[in-house]
Design brief:
474 residues, six-stranded mixed beta sheet, 49% helix, binds flavin-adenine dinucleotide, deoxyribodipyrimidine photo-lyase activity, FAD, Deoxyribodipyrimidine photo-lyase
Length: 474
Protein backbone atom coordinates (compact mmCIF):
# COMPACT_ATOMS: atom_id res chain seq x y z
CA UNK A 1 0.00 0.00 0.00
CA UNK A 2 1.23 3.46 -0.82
CA UNK A 3 1.26 6.22 1.79
CA UNK A 4 0.53 9.75 0.57
CA UNK A 5 4.17 10.61 0.27
CA UNK A 6 5.11 7.44 -1.51
CA UNK A 7 2.19 8.27 -3.74
CA UNK A 8 3.60 11.77 -4.07
CA UNK A 9 7.08 10.45 -4.79
CA UNK A 10 5.64 8.09 -7.38
CA UNK A 11 3.64 10.95 -8.90
CA UNK A 12 6.67 13.25 -8.93
CA UNK A 13 8.66 10.52 -10.65
CA UNK A 14 6.00 9.99 -13.29
CA UNK A 15 5.67 13.72 -13.95
CA UNK A 16 9.43 13.97 -14.41
CA UNK A 17 9.62 11.35 -17.14
CA UNK A 18 10.69 13.83 -19.78
CA UNK A 19 13.38 15.56 -17.68
CA UNK A 20 16.76 15.40 -19.42
CA UNK A 21 20.02 14.34 -17.79
CA UNK A 22 22.30 17.33 -17.25
CA UNK A 23 25.67 16.28 -18.66
CA UNK A 24 27.46 18.53 -16.16
CA UNK A 25 26.74 15.87 -13.57
CA UNK A 26 29.07 13.45 -15.37
CA UNK A 27 32.78 13.46 -16.08
CA UNK A 28 34.90 11.20 -18.25
CA UNK A 29 37.64 9.20 -16.58
CA UNK A 30 38.75 7.68 -19.88
CA UNK A 31 39.98 8.85 -23.27
CA UNK A 32 37.20 6.87 -24.95
CA UNK A 33 33.94 8.82 -24.98
CA UNK A 34 31.53 6.78 -27.12
CA UNK A 35 29.85 3.50 -26.18
CA UNK A 36 31.90 0.79 -27.89
CA UNK A 37 30.44 -0.32 -31.21
CA UNK A 38 28.81 -3.75 -31.23
CA UNK A 39 28.84 -3.97 -27.43
CA UNK A 40 26.43 -6.16 -25.53
CA UNK A 41 25.42 -3.55 -22.99
CA UNK A 42 26.19 -0.64 -20.67
CA UNK A 43 27.22 -1.18 -17.05
CA UNK A 44 26.46 0.88 -13.95
CA UNK A 45 28.98 -0.03 -11.26
CA UNK A 46 26.95 0.73 -8.13
CA UNK A 47 29.06 1.60 -5.13
CA UNK A 48 28.06 4.46 -2.86
CA UNK A 49 24.53 4.94 -4.15
CA UNK A 50 22.77 1.67 -3.54
CA UNK A 51 19.38 2.42 -5.07
CA UNK A 52 17.64 2.27 -8.44
CA UNK A 53 15.35 5.31 -8.63
CA UNK A 54 16.56 8.87 -8.02
CA UNK A 55 20.07 7.82 -8.96
CA UNK A 56 21.77 10.12 -11.50
CA UNK A 57 24.45 7.55 -12.31
CA UNK A 58 21.92 4.91 -13.29
CA UNK A 59 19.79 7.49 -15.11
CA UNK A 60 22.84 8.39 -17.18
CA UNK A 61 23.78 4.73 -17.79
CA UNK A 62 20.25 4.04 -19.02
CA UNK A 63 20.32 7.02 -21.38
CA UNK A 64 23.56 5.67 -22.90
CA UNK A 65 22.12 2.16 -23.23
CA UNK A 66 18.95 3.48 -24.88
CA UNK A 67 20.93 5.55 -27.34
CA UNK A 68 23.13 2.58 -28.25
CA UNK A 69 20.10 0.21 -28.18
CA UNK A 70 21.80 -2.26 -25.86
CA UNK A 71 21.07 -3.95 -22.54
CA UNK A 72 21.65 -2.30 -19.16
CA UNK A 73 23.54 -3.97 -16.30
CA UNK A 74 24.08 -3.04 -12.67
CA UNK A 75 26.85 -4.60 -10.62
CA UNK A 76 27.92 -4.39 -6.99
CA UNK A 77 31.13 -5.83 -5.53
CA UNK A 78 30.97 -7.50 -2.15
CA UNK A 79 34.38 -8.25 -0.75
CA UNK A 80 34.64 -11.45 1.25
CA UNK A 81 37.47 -10.21 3.47
CA UNK A 82 36.15 -7.16 5.24
CA UNK A 83 38.24 -5.81 8.08
CA UNK A 84 36.10 -4.48 10.98
CA UNK A 85 32.82 -5.18 9.20
CA UNK A 86 29.88 -5.64 11.54
CA UNK A 87 26.55 -7.40 11.14
CA UNK A 88 24.91 -4.00 11.75
CA UNK A 89 26.52 -2.47 8.68
CA UNK A 90 26.42 -5.43 6.31
CA UNK A 91 22.88 -6.61 6.99
CA UNK A 92 21.82 -3.06 6.05
CA UNK A 93 23.85 -3.20 2.86
CA UNK A 94 22.82 -6.68 1.79
CA UNK A 95 19.10 -6.21 2.46
CA UNK A 96 19.16 -2.90 0.61
CA UNK A 97 20.86 -4.56 -2.34
CA UNK A 98 18.30 -7.36 -2.38
CA UNK A 99 15.56 -4.77 -2.80
CA UNK A 100 17.56 -2.96 -5.51
CA UNK A 101 18.11 -6.28 -7.35
CA UNK A 102 14.35 -6.97 -7.34
CA UNK A 103 13.65 -3.51 -8.72
CA UNK A 104 16.23 -4.08 -11.46
CA UNK A 105 14.58 -7.35 -12.34
CA UNK A 106 11.18 -5.71 -12.66
CA UNK A 107 12.66 -3.07 -14.97
CA UNK A 108 14.51 -5.50 -17.24
CA UNK A 109 17.98 -4.54 -15.94
CA UNK A 110 20.45 -7.26 -15.02
CA UNK A 111 21.78 -7.10 -11.47
CA UNK A 112 25.12 -8.80 -10.78
CA UNK A 113 26.33 -9.32 -7.25
CA UNK A 114 30.04 -9.98 -7.66
CA UNK A 115 32.68 -11.21 -5.24
CA UNK A 116 36.07 -9.55 -4.77
CA UNK A 117 37.18 -5.99 -5.27
CA UNK A 118 36.11 -3.90 -8.24
CA UNK A 119 39.67 -2.82 -8.97
CA UNK A 120 40.67 -6.39 -9.72
CA UNK A 121 37.47 -7.93 -10.98
CA UNK A 122 35.52 -5.24 -12.83
CA UNK A 123 37.69 -4.97 -15.96
CA UNK A 124 37.51 -8.76 -16.41
CA UNK A 125 33.74 -8.71 -15.95
CA UNK A 126 33.44 -6.02 -18.62
CA UNK A 127 35.47 -8.10 -21.09
CA UNK A 128 33.69 -11.36 -20.29
CA UNK A 129 30.30 -9.79 -20.84
CA UNK A 130 31.34 -7.67 -23.84
CA UNK A 131 30.13 -4.44 -22.21
CA UNK A 132 30.68 -1.17 -24.04
CA UNK A 133 30.68 1.55 -21.33
CA UNK A 134 30.97 1.82 -17.55
CA UNK A 135 29.31 4.47 -15.39
CA UNK A 136 29.99 4.71 -11.67
CA UNK A 137 28.94 6.93 -8.78
CA UNK A 138 31.20 9.08 -6.62
CA UNK A 139 32.65 9.02 -3.13
CA UNK A 140 35.53 11.22 -1.99
CA UNK A 141 36.85 8.62 0.43
CA UNK A 142 40.30 7.09 -0.03
CA UNK A 143 39.22 3.48 -0.63
CA UNK A 144 36.72 4.51 -3.27
CA UNK A 145 39.10 6.82 -5.11
CA UNK A 146 41.65 4.03 -5.17
CA UNK A 147 39.20 1.50 -6.58
CA UNK A 148 38.08 3.92 -9.27
CA UNK A 149 41.71 4.46 -10.21
CA UNK A 150 42.36 0.72 -10.42
CA UNK A 151 39.31 0.20 -12.61
CA UNK A 152 40.38 3.10 -14.79
CA UNK A 153 43.80 1.48 -15.32
CA UNK A 154 42.34 -1.98 -15.94
CA UNK A 155 39.59 -1.17 -18.44
CA UNK A 156 40.24 -1.67 -22.18
CA UNK A 157 41.09 1.66 -23.82
CA UNK A 158 38.04 1.60 -26.10
CA UNK A 159 35.56 1.31 -23.21
CA UNK A 160 34.51 4.72 -21.87
CA UNK A 161 34.45 5.14 -18.09
CA UNK A 162 32.29 7.90 -16.61
CA UNK A 163 31.64 9.10 -13.10
CA UNK A 164 28.43 10.77 -11.96
CA UNK A 165 28.07 12.34 -8.53
CA UNK A 166 24.79 10.71 -7.50
CA UNK A 167 25.18 11.62 -3.83
CA UNK A 168 25.42 15.39 -3.90
CA UNK A 169 22.86 17.75 -5.36
CA UNK A 170 25.64 19.82 -6.95
CA UNK A 171 28.45 17.55 -8.17
CA UNK A 172 31.36 17.87 -5.74
CA UNK A 173 33.82 19.01 -8.42
CA UNK A 174 31.34 21.52 -9.87
CA UNK A 175 30.44 23.09 -6.51
CA UNK A 176 34.07 24.06 -5.89
CA UNK A 177 37.51 23.24 -7.24
CA UNK A 178 39.23 23.64 -3.87
CA UNK A 179 38.94 22.93 -0.18
CA UNK A 180 36.47 25.40 1.31
CA UNK A 181 37.10 27.08 4.65
CA UNK A 182 33.64 26.77 6.08
CA UNK A 183 29.93 26.55 5.42
CA UNK A 184 30.03 30.30 4.83
CA UNK A 185 32.37 30.01 1.87
CA UNK A 186 30.61 27.10 0.14
CA UNK A 187 26.99 28.13 0.84
CA UNK A 188 26.84 30.84 -1.81
CA UNK A 189 28.51 28.63 -4.42
CA UNK A 190 26.03 25.81 -3.86
CA UNK A 191 22.99 28.06 -3.58
CA UNK A 192 23.83 29.72 -6.88
CA UNK A 193 23.87 26.32 -8.59
CA UNK A 194 20.68 24.93 -7.05
CA UNK A 195 18.37 26.18 -9.83
CA UNK A 196 20.47 24.12 -12.25
CA UNK A 197 20.89 20.97 -10.13
CA UNK A 198 18.03 20.74 -7.65
CA UNK A 199 15.71 19.33 -10.31
CA UNK A 200 13.31 16.42 -10.49
CA UNK A 201 14.74 13.03 -11.44
CA UNK A 202 13.66 11.32 -14.64
CA UNK A 203 12.32 7.83 -14.00
CA UNK A 204 14.56 4.83 -14.54
CA UNK A 205 12.08 3.15 -16.84
CA UNK A 206 11.48 -0.37 -18.10
CA UNK A 207 14.44 -1.14 -20.33
CA UNK A 208 13.54 -2.32 -23.82
CA UNK A 209 16.78 -4.16 -24.72
CA UNK A 210 17.44 -7.57 -23.15
CA UNK A 211 20.82 -9.09 -22.39
CA UNK A 212 21.77 -12.14 -24.46
CA UNK A 213 22.54 -14.32 -21.44
CA UNK A 214 21.16 -14.44 -17.92
CA UNK A 215 23.01 -13.08 -14.89
CA UNK A 216 24.09 -15.55 -12.25
CA UNK A 217 21.24 -16.17 -9.83
CA UNK A 218 21.87 -14.79 -6.32
CA UNK A 219 20.64 -16.77 -3.32
CA UNK A 220 20.01 -13.77 -1.06
CA UNK A 221 19.34 -15.96 1.96
CA UNK A 222 22.97 -17.04 1.88
CA UNK A 223 24.75 -13.77 1.14
CA UNK A 224 25.11 -12.48 4.68
CA UNK A 225 26.14 -15.81 6.17
CA UNK A 226 28.85 -16.04 3.51
CA UNK A 227 30.62 -12.97 4.92
CA UNK A 228 33.00 -12.94 7.84
CA UNK A 229 31.40 -10.40 10.14
CA UNK A 230 31.70 -9.13 13.68
CA UNK A 231 28.49 -10.28 15.38
CA UNK A 232 29.02 -8.23 18.53
CA UNK A 233 27.52 -5.16 16.82
CA UNK A 234 24.10 -6.34 15.74
CA UNK A 235 21.15 -5.06 13.74
CA UNK A 236 18.92 -2.36 15.19
CA UNK A 237 15.17 -2.65 15.08
CA UNK A 238 14.09 0.94 14.42
CA UNK A 239 15.77 1.25 11.00
CA UNK A 240 14.74 -1.06 8.18
CA UNK A 241 17.19 -1.11 5.28
CA UNK A 242 16.29 -0.37 1.68
CA UNK A 243 14.88 2.30 -0.60
CA UNK A 244 11.23 1.90 0.37
CA UNK A 245 11.98 2.07 4.09
CA UNK A 246 14.03 5.22 3.39
CA UNK A 247 11.05 6.82 1.62
CA UNK A 248 8.80 5.76 4.52
CA UNK A 249 11.15 7.44 7.03
CA UNK A 250 11.12 10.58 4.86
CA UNK A 251 7.33 10.44 4.85
CA UNK A 252 7.15 10.22 8.63
CA UNK A 253 9.60 13.13 8.91
CA UNK A 254 7.48 15.39 6.72
CA UNK A 255 4.26 14.30 8.42
CA UNK A 256 5.36 14.32 12.03
CA UNK A 257 8.75 15.90 12.75
CA UNK A 258 9.53 18.55 10.15
CA UNK A 259 7.42 21.16 11.95
CA UNK A 260 9.74 20.87 14.97
CA UNK A 261 12.99 20.65 13.03
CA UNK A 262 14.05 24.31 13.30
CA UNK A 263 13.14 24.89 16.96
CA UNK A 264 13.96 21.48 18.46
CA UNK A 265 16.65 19.76 16.43
CA UNK A 266 19.30 20.45 19.08
CA UNK A 267 17.23 18.88 21.85
CA UNK A 268 18.17 15.20 22.22
CA UNK A 269 14.93 14.48 24.10
CA UNK A 270 12.68 15.52 21.24
CA UNK A 271 11.81 13.73 18.07
CA UNK A 272 12.61 16.49 15.63
CA UNK A 273 15.36 15.07 13.44
CA UNK A 274 14.72 13.45 10.08
CA UNK A 275 16.54 10.22 11.16
CA UNK A 276 17.47 9.84 7.49
CA UNK A 277 21.25 9.58 7.79
CA UNK A 278 21.51 5.74 7.60
CA UNK A 279 19.58 5.63 4.31
CA UNK A 280 21.38 8.64 2.92
CA UNK A 281 24.74 7.16 3.92
CA UNK A 282 24.13 3.84 2.15
CA UNK A 283 22.56 5.62 -0.79
CA UNK A 284 19.19 3.94 -0.19
CA UNK A 285 17.70 7.44 -0.22
CA UNK A 286 18.84 10.38 -2.30
CA UNK A 287 19.30 13.55 -0.24
CA UNK A 288 18.07 15.42 -3.30
CA UNK A 289 14.79 13.48 -3.17
CA UNK A 290 14.51 14.29 0.54
CA UNK A 291 14.96 18.00 -0.15
CA UNK A 292 12.51 18.01 -3.08
CA UNK A 293 9.81 16.38 -0.96
CA UNK A 294 10.49 18.55 2.08
CA UNK A 295 10.10 21.64 -0.10
CA UNK A 296 6.72 20.36 -1.30
CA UNK A 297 5.68 19.50 2.26
CA UNK A 298 2.43 20.97 3.52
CA UNK A 299 2.77 20.83 7.24
CA UNK A 300 5.71 22.37 8.92
CA UNK A 301 6.90 25.69 10.06
CA UNK A 302 8.33 27.76 7.28
CA UNK A 303 11.73 28.07 8.99
CA UNK A 304 12.17 24.28 9.19
CA UNK A 305 12.55 23.91 5.43
CA UNK A 306 15.66 26.12 5.01
CA UNK A 307 17.08 24.64 8.23
CA UNK A 308 16.82 21.17 6.72
CA UNK A 309 18.32 22.29 3.39
CA UNK A 310 21.25 23.80 5.30
CA UNK A 311 22.08 20.41 6.89
CA UNK A 312 21.14 18.02 4.09
CA UNK A 313 22.72 20.08 1.31
CA UNK A 314 25.20 22.70 2.53
CA UNK A 315 26.77 20.88 5.51
CA UNK A 316 26.67 17.48 3.85
CA UNK A 317 28.21 18.71 0.61
CA UNK A 318 30.81 20.66 2.58
CA UNK A 319 31.87 17.35 4.16
CA UNK A 320 32.37 15.78 0.73
CA UNK A 321 34.31 18.88 -0.34
CA UNK A 322 36.66 18.50 2.63
CA UNK A 323 37.35 14.80 2.09
CA UNK A 324 37.78 15.22 -1.66
CA UNK A 325 40.28 18.08 -1.50
CA UNK A 326 42.09 17.12 1.71
CA UNK A 327 43.94 13.80 1.57
CA UNK A 328 44.36 13.90 5.35
CA UNK A 329 40.66 14.22 6.04
CA UNK A 330 40.81 11.89 9.06
CA UNK A 331 44.11 13.01 10.59
CA UNK A 332 45.11 15.91 12.84
CA UNK A 333 47.55 16.92 10.09
CA UNK A 334 44.55 17.63 7.90
CA UNK A 335 43.44 20.49 10.19
CA UNK A 336 44.21 24.18 9.65
CA UNK A 337 47.50 25.62 10.85
CA UNK A 338 45.87 27.63 13.66
CA UNK A 339 44.17 24.54 15.05
CA UNK A 340 47.23 22.31 14.84
CA UNK A 341 49.32 24.96 16.53
CA UNK A 342 46.91 25.56 19.37
CA UNK A 343 46.39 21.83 19.98
CA UNK A 344 50.16 21.37 19.96
CA UNK A 345 50.62 24.25 22.42
CA UNK A 346 48.25 22.50 24.83
CA UNK A 347 49.29 18.90 24.17
CA UNK A 348 50.94 18.59 27.57
CA UNK A 349 48.10 20.14 29.59
CA UNK A 350 46.96 17.75 32.30
CA UNK A 351 43.37 16.61 31.90
CA UNK A 352 40.85 16.10 34.68
CA UNK A 353 40.22 12.47 33.67
CA UNK A 354 42.00 10.02 31.41
CA UNK A 355 40.25 7.03 29.91
CA UNK A 356 41.37 4.23 27.64
CA UNK A 357 39.60 3.36 24.43
CA UNK A 358 38.13 0.33 26.13
CA UNK A 359 36.70 2.35 29.02
CA UNK A 360 35.17 4.78 26.59
CA UNK A 361 33.78 2.02 24.41
CA UNK A 362 32.11 0.46 27.46
CA UNK A 363 30.71 3.83 28.56
CA UNK A 364 32.67 3.71 31.83
CA UNK A 365 33.21 7.40 32.45
CA UNK A 366 32.20 9.61 35.37
CA UNK A 367 29.91 11.61 33.05
CA UNK A 368 26.42 10.16 32.85
CA UNK A 369 25.43 12.24 29.86
CA UNK A 370 28.44 11.06 27.90
CA UNK A 371 27.75 7.46 28.88
CA UNK A 372 24.11 7.82 27.89
CA UNK A 373 25.12 9.14 24.46
CA UNK A 374 27.56 6.27 24.04
CA UNK A 375 24.80 3.77 24.97
CA UNK A 376 22.45 5.39 22.51
CA UNK A 377 25.02 4.81 19.79
CA UNK A 378 25.78 1.23 20.82
CA UNK A 379 22.16 0.16 21.17
CA UNK A 380 20.39 2.21 18.49
CA UNK A 381 23.20 2.74 16.02
CA UNK A 382 22.53 6.49 15.91
CA UNK A 383 23.53 9.10 18.44
CA UNK A 384 21.62 12.37 18.46
CA UNK A 385 23.42 14.99 16.36
CA UNK A 386 23.80 17.55 19.15
CA UNK A 387 25.39 15.00 21.47
CA UNK A 388 27.85 13.84 18.81
CA UNK A 389 29.65 17.17 19.22
CA UNK A 390 29.76 16.93 23.01
CA UNK A 391 30.76 13.26 22.82
CA UNK A 392 33.75 13.86 20.51
CA UNK A 393 34.94 16.95 22.40
CA UNK A 394 35.01 15.05 25.67
CA UNK A 395 37.14 12.35 24.04
CA UNK A 396 39.67 15.11 23.31
CA UNK A 397 39.53 16.21 26.94
CA UNK A 398 39.91 12.72 28.40
CA UNK A 399 42.69 11.19 26.30
CA UNK A 400 46.38 11.91 26.08
CA UNK A 401 46.65 13.60 22.67
CA UNK A 402 44.46 14.99 19.88
CA UNK A 403 45.78 12.21 17.62
CA UNK A 404 44.59 9.56 20.05
CA UNK A 405 41.27 11.33 20.57
CA UNK A 406 40.62 11.56 16.84
CA UNK A 407 41.46 7.94 16.22
CA UNK A 408 39.22 6.73 19.08
CA UNK A 409 36.34 8.95 17.99
CA UNK A 410 36.57 7.70 14.41
CA UNK A 411 36.94 4.09 15.52
CA UNK A 412 33.80 4.22 17.69
CA UNK A 413 31.85 6.27 15.17
CA UNK A 414 32.61 3.91 12.29
CA UNK A 415 32.01 0.82 14.36
CA UNK A 416 28.64 1.65 15.92
CA UNK A 417 26.91 4.36 13.91
CA UNK A 418 24.73 3.11 11.09
CA UNK A 419 25.74 6.23 9.20
CA UNK A 420 29.45 5.75 10.01
CA UNK A 421 32.34 5.49 7.50
CA UNK A 422 30.99 8.62 5.87
CA UNK A 423 32.57 11.98 4.99
CA UNK A 424 30.08 13.53 7.45
CA UNK A 425 31.58 11.40 10.21
CA UNK A 426 35.21 12.26 9.45
CA UNK A 427 34.33 15.93 9.20
CA UNK A 428 32.16 15.77 12.34
CA UNK A 429 35.09 14.32 14.32
CA UNK A 430 37.53 16.79 12.74
CA UNK A 431 35.20 19.71 13.52
CA UNK A 432 34.83 18.67 17.15
CA UNK A 433 38.46 17.81 17.86
CA UNK A 434 40.47 19.81 15.32
CA UNK A 435 38.33 22.90 14.64
CA UNK A 436 37.76 22.08 10.96
CA UNK A 437 35.27 24.53 9.36
CA UNK A 438 35.14 26.37 12.69
CA UNK A 439 36.90 29.47 14.00
CA UNK A 440 39.17 29.99 17.00
CA UNK A 441 37.52 30.63 20.38
CA UNK A 442 38.75 31.80 23.73
CA UNK A 443 41.88 29.88 24.69
CA UNK A 444 41.66 27.30 27.48
CA UNK A 445 43.43 24.15 28.71
CA UNK A 446 43.70 21.11 26.39
CA UNK A 447 41.40 22.57 23.73
CA UNK A 448 43.47 25.66 23.13
CA UNK A 449 41.34 27.77 20.77
CA UNK A 450 39.21 24.86 19.60
CA UNK A 451 35.57 25.34 20.62
CA UNK A 452 34.79 23.92 24.05
CA UNK A 453 31.59 22.29 25.30
CA UNK A 454 30.71 21.25 28.81
CA UNK A 455 28.08 19.51 30.88
CA UNK A 456 26.75 22.71 32.41
CA UNK A 457 26.18 24.11 28.92
CA UNK A 458 24.13 21.02 28.04
CA UNK A 459 21.96 21.40 31.15
CA UNK A 460 21.08 24.91 29.98
CA UNK A 461 19.99 23.57 26.58
CA UNK A 462 17.90 20.53 27.44
CA UNK A 463 16.80 18.24 30.25
CA UNK A 464 20.00 16.26 30.66
CA UNK A 465 18.66 14.00 33.40
CA UNK A 466 15.78 12.91 31.23
CA UNK A 467 18.22 11.79 28.55
CA UNK A 468 20.47 10.05 31.09
CA UNK A 469 17.53 8.18 32.60
CA UNK A 470 16.45 7.03 29.19
CA UNK A 471 19.78 5.54 28.11
CA UNK A 472 21.91 4.69 31.15
CA UNK A 473 21.31 1.16 32.41
CA UNK A 474 19.53 1.09 35.76
P1 LIG B 1 19.15 15.70 10.32
O1 LIG B 1 19.44 16.87 11.17
O2 LIG B 1 17.73 15.35 10.08
O3 LIG B 1 19.89 16.00 8.94
C1 LIG B 1 19.49 15.55 7.67
C2 LIG B 1 20.71 15.12 6.89
O4 LIG B 1 21.61 16.21 6.75
C3 LIG B 1 21.52 14.03 7.59
O5 LIG B 1 21.00 12.76 7.31
C4 LIG B 1 22.91 14.24 7.04
O6 LIG B 1 23.04 13.62 5.78
C5 LIG B 1 22.97 15.74 6.86
N1 LIG B 1 23.60 16.38 8.03
C6 LIG B 1 23.02 16.73 9.19
N2 LIG B 1 23.92 17.31 10.01
C7 LIG B 1 25.10 17.32 9.35
C8 LIG B 1 26.39 17.78 9.67
N3 LIG B 1 26.67 18.38 10.82
N4 LIG B 1 27.38 17.61 8.76
C9 LIG B 1 27.13 17.05 7.58
N5 LIG B 1 25.90 16.59 7.21
C10 LIG B 1 24.90 16.73 8.09
N6 LIG B 1 26.78 12.26 9.95
C11 LIG B 1 26.76 11.13 9.23
O7 LIG B 1 26.00 11.05 8.27
N7 LIG B 1 27.60 10.10 9.51
C12 LIG B 1 28.45 10.12 10.56
O8 LIG B 1 29.20 9.17 10.81
C13 LIG B 1 28.48 11.29 11.36
N8 LIG B 1 29.30 11.36 12.42
C14 LIG B 1 29.39 12.52 13.13
C15 LIG B 1 30.31 12.61 14.17
C16 LIG B 1 30.44 13.76 14.92
C17 LIG B 1 31.44 13.82 16.02
C18 LIG B 1 29.62 14.87 14.60
C19 LIG B 1 29.76 16.15 15.38
C20 LIG B 1 28.70 14.80 13.56
C21 LIG B 1 28.57 13.64 12.81
N9 LIG B 1 27.64 13.52 11.75
C22 LIG B 1 27.61 12.37 11.01
C23 LIG B 1 26.80 14.67 11.35
C24 LIG B 1 25.38 14.72 11.99
O9 LIG B 1 25.48 14.63 13.38
C25 LIG B 1 24.48 13.59 11.46
O10 LIG B 1 24.44 13.65 10.05
C26 LIG B 1 23.05 13.69 11.96
O11 LIG B 1 23.02 13.65 13.35
C27 LIG B 1 22.25 12.55 11.36
O12 LIG B 1 20.96 12.48 11.86
P2 LIG B 1 19.68 12.91 11.01
O13 LIG B 1 19.71 12.31 9.66
O14 LIG B 1 18.48 12.60 11.85
O15 LIG B 1 19.96 14.47 10.92
Amino acid sequence: EEGWLEGEVAAARREARGVKFNKRRARFLSEAQKVKQGAEGVLYWMSRDQRVQDNWALIYAQSLALEAEVSLHVCFFLEQQLPDATVREYSFIVKGLEEAAKECDALGLQFHLLPGSAGEALPRFVEDWGLGAVVTDFSPLRVSLQQVEEVQKGLPSDVPFMQVDAHNVVPCWVASDKQEYSARTIRGKITKLLPEFLTQFPLVDKHPHCASKPAEVVDWSQVLSGLKLDHSVGEVDWAQPGASAGIAMLESFIDERLKDYAPLRNNPNSEALSQLSPWVHFGHLSAQRAVLQVQRGRSGRAESIPAFVEEAVVRRELADNFCYYNKKYDQVEGASDWARKTLQDHAKDPGPYTYTREQLEKAQTHDKLWNAAQYQMIVEGKMHGFLRMYWAKKILEWTSSPEEALSIAIYLNDRYELDGRDPNGYVGCMWSICGVHDQGWQERAIFGKVRYMNYAGCTRKFNVQEFERRYCPK
